[in-house]
């Protein structure tokens, strides 16, 4: 009996060494507000969309090391594609932090600059999102492309700021859209975006800073309440102390602050990035990758903790 007990004990110890048991949160869930496990390779591309013309863009992909045309990392491939768009007078090079964060978590991103980034036409941005998806697919099939065969061509996401957020909405609500889920950061408004919003049937998340002086929170909330239906999953969140310029790269946000382009913010730009990335990364993980363990960050206890602690000033969601 004693020998039997000793044998079972030794067997259990060996099994724990060979097959260790890890808590789910510690092992399987990469914190969405921290950089992911991948290095980032990148290269420049362009594409034309009639009638607007020439879009400049940067593609970033999971790589084995950092840098231009770095060797890709195939572990985890194929990777979903996400199109990223900046706002009025902005360019792809001053919203890099979003692309880098998402790529580090296992997405291939393409971030575009429209032909005329001072044109107040949201459709120009909408065409940029549609053209961005086409460009990713063509690059995936190109013999000499750095992302050849890496892209999951069955699912696509989109995320945009301000005019880019409006274009995101318009592109997603357009007939034949290939966007499977969308995140909008302080989206602008136009007749086209309000009309398109009513046609959206895929999951959509709205983010805004509660000190935004360019796109007030109540205007973003009206998208959630009045211009999107109840046929899809949707979420609205307001970041306490965040503002509009806080969604761009910190260097450019500080320049915009010095010029006085926005209301003052009461949290650091780095903190606004952290909170925003926590929600948009979890959103894409949950809806593009079916990673149900990220539910807590957008709908569950983690999200409620942010609301109750004051990290968020408002949080609303609807799940049909």
Feature tags:
single chain, 320 residues, alpha/beta, Rossmann fold, 38% helix
Write the layout of secondary structure elements.
Layout: H1 2-18, H2 24-27, E1 39-49, E2 53-63, E3 67-68, E4 79-85, H3 96-104, E5 108-113, H4 122-141, E6 151-161, H5 163-172, E7 181-185, H6 191-197, E8 204-209, H7 217-227, E9 234-239, H8 250-259, H9 269-288, H10 295-298, H11 301-309, E10 312-318
Parallel strand pairs: 1-3, 4-5, 4-6, 6-7, 7-8, 8-9
Antiparallel strand pairs: 1-2, 2-5, 9-10
Distance between the termini: 58 Å
Largest sheet: 10 strands, mixed
Morphology call: globular
What is the domain tally? 1
Order of helices and strands: HHEEEEHEHEHEHEHEHHHHE
In the CATH hierarchy, what is the class? Alpha Beta
The side-by-side strand order for the widest beta sheet comes to 3-1-2-5-4-6-7-8-9-10
- State the share of residues found in helices, binned by percent: 25-40%
CATH superfamily: Alpha/Beta hydrolase fold, catalytic domain
Relative strand content: 15-25%
* Low-confidence region ranges: 1-27
Round the mean pLDDT to the nearest integer and report it.
92
- Strand runs, count: 10
What does this structure look like?
The protein has helices spanning 2-18, 24-27, 96-104, 122-141, 163-172, 191-197, 217-227, 250-259, 269-288, 295-298, 301-309, and strands at 39-49, 53-63, 67-68, 79-85, 108-113, 151-161, 181-185, 204-209, 234-239, 312-318. It is an alpha/beta fold. It has one domain: Alpha/Beta hydrolase fold, catalytic domain (Rossmann fold). The chain has a 10-stranded mixed beta sheet with strand order 3-1-2-5-4-6-7-8-9-10, with helices on both faces. Strand 7, helix 6 (191-197) and strand 8 form a beta-alpha-beta unit. Residues 1-27 have low confidence and may be disordered.
């Amino acid at each position: 009996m004693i020998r039997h007990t000793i044998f079972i004990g030794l067997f259990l110890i060996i099994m724990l060494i060979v097959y260790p048991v890890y808590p789910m949160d510690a092992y399987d869930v990469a914190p969405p507000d921290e950089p992911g496990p991948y290095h980032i390779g990148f290269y420049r591309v362009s594409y034309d969309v009639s009638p607007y013309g020439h879009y400049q863009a940067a593609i970033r992909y999971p790589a084995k090391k950092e840098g231009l045309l770095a060797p890709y990392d195939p572990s985890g491939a194929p990777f979903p594609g996400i199109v990223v768009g900046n706002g009025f007078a902005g360019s792809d090079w001053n919203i890099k932090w979003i692309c880098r964060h998402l790529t580090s978590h296992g997405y291939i991103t393409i971030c575009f600059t429209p032909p005329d980034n001072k044109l107040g036409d949201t459709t120009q941005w909408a065409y940029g999102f549609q053209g961005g998806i086409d460009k990713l697919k063509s690059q995936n099939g190109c013999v000499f492309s750095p992302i050849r065969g890496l892209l999951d061509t069955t699912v696509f996401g989109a995320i945009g700021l301000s005019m880019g957020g409006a274009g995101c909405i318009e592109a997603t609500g357009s007939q034949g859209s290939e966007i499977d889920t969308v995140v909008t950061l302080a989206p602008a408004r136009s007749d086209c975006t309000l009309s398109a919003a009513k046609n959206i049937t895929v999951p959509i998340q709205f983010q805004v800073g509660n000190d935004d002086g360019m796109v007030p929170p109540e205007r973003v909330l009206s998208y959630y309440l009045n211009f999107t239906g109840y046929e899809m999953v949707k979420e609205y969140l307001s970041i306490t102390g965040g503002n509009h310029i806080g969604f761009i790269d910190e260097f450019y946000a500080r320049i915009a602050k010095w010029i006085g382009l926005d209301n003052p913010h009461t949290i650091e730009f780095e903190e606004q990035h952290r909170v925003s990335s926590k929600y948009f990364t979890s959103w894409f993980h949950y809806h593009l990758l079916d990673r149900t363990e990220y539910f807590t960050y957008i709908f569950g206890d983690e999200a409620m903790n942010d609301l109750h602690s004051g990290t968020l000033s408002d949080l609303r969601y609807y799940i049909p």
